[in-house]
Amino acid sequence: MIGTILNAITVLIGGTIGTLLGSRFPQRMQETVFASLGLFTLAIGISSALVTKNPLIVLGSLVLGALIGEAINLEMKLERFGAWLQRLLVRGDSQSQTSRFVEGFVTASLVFCVGPLTIQGAIEDGLLGDFTKLAIKSMLDGFAALAFATTLGPGVLASIVVILGFQGGISLLASLGSNVFTDPMITELTATGGVVLLSIGLRLLEIKQIRAANLLPALFVAPLAIALMDVLGITYYPNL
Q1: Which residue of 44, 64, 82, 171 pairs with 105 in a disulfide if CB–CB is 3.0 to 4.6 A?
Q2: Contact yes or no for 53/188 (Cβ under 8 A)
């Protein structure tokens, strides 16, 4: 959990600085910074998605995950949670303020918690006590939080709750047993997370407003699919 706590601290520092400096950044500068984050997110998403050894698992996980996410309307629940945090933590409840806070919370939560460093780093932290990857992620997230907060404001800081819950939960689960996550599980989970990151990048670039949060169940479907294949004796590598 050390890596997750460090991650939360860097997001707190970066988000706070960004929130304080946001009003001093010209609109065109905020737009360019936001676009650069979108492009970077696309790049990370593509590189992560390409690690898959069985694209059918990624496709099936995304489709099933999307059906689950839409059925329970996960994105709306996350937005409502963000709005509740806004009312709890920030004064002012105008529609524009609430919308901006929720957008910052949802976007930052997805970017910070969906990616290869999140999954692999959290597992290594919990399983081996090695938080090297999460330390690297913490530095990246700190700068990203600063950039996000200059545009989206204090909602970015609220993503700390999700970092502690999701990333910390993975570390805790990994610490309970060395056989929980196998290499194929991590590989396909990372690849599936990469595709989810692509949807976030498109959203940041305002190309397509995909309900990215409703794809999050796919991150749970992917490792479960690998576990089911092991039980049924199905070959993980389809071309071998």
Answers
A1: 82
A2: yes
Which residues have C-beta within 8 Å of that of residue 126, sequence separation ≥ 6?
1, 170, 171, 172, 173, 174, 175
Kindly state whether residue 12 falls inside one of the protein's structural domains: yes
In a domain, 237, yes or no: no
DSSP conformation class of 164: I
* Complete DSSP assignment for 66-84: HHHHHHHTHHHHHHHHHHH
Rounded CA separation 75/205 (Å): 19
Residue 196 domain boundaries:
2-232
Alpha-carbon distance 154 to 168, whole Å? 22
43: in domain: yes
pLDDT tens-digit readout, 178-230: 566 788 888 888 888 888 888 888 887 888 888 888 888 898 899 899 989 88
Find out whether 38 and 205 touch, Cβ atoms under 8 Å. yes
Q: What would you report as the CA-atom Rg of the chain, rounded to the nearest whole angstrom? A: 18
Query: How far apart are the C-alpha atoms of 49 and 12, rounded to whole Å?
Result: 29
pLDDT digits (tens, 9 = 90+) for 34-85: 788 788 878 888 988 999 999 999 999 999 999 999 999 888 887 787 777 6
Q: Is residue 66 part of a domain?
A: yes
> What is the separation of C-alpha 165 from the centre of its chain, rounded to a whole number of angstroms?
12
Rounded CA separation 19/70 (Å): 32
- pTM for the full model? 0.72
